[in-house]
Write a structure and sequence with these properties.
Blueprint: E1 2-7, H1 16-26, E2 33-38, E3 41-44, H2 48-53, E4 61-67, H3 71-85
Antiparallel strand pairs: 1-4, 2-3, 2-4
């Protein structure tokens, strides 16, 4: 299992556009489980509505985990995604 923490910098937080992009990006690793956690609330990164319902706002610290055969590539892509979009 690989993981990282990230503090949301986007003024709007996790809204529809980045949540949709995140879900699509995570679908690129179908055999690797990718999750997003905020204060104990966990969602699969491929679940758009669930991600949006977490209420992730600017300044929130989240933890992203990847577990599976492609976890190294998946977690690297997730880190790049968060830096670029959130």
């Amino acid at each position: 299992m690989k993981e990282f923490t990230y503090t949301i910098a986007d003024p709007l937080g996790m809204h529809a556009r980045p949540a949709g992009l995140l879900a699509r990006t995570a679908m690129g690793w179908p055999d690797t489980a990718i999750t997003v956690e905020k204060a104990g609330d966990v969602a699969k990164a491929t679940q758009l509505l669930r991600l949006m319902s977490m209420g992730i706002r600017r300044g929130d610290e989240i933890r992203v985990r990847a577990e599976g055969p492609q976890e190294e590539a998946a977690i690297a892509a997730m880190e790049a995604f968060f830096r670029e979009h959130l």
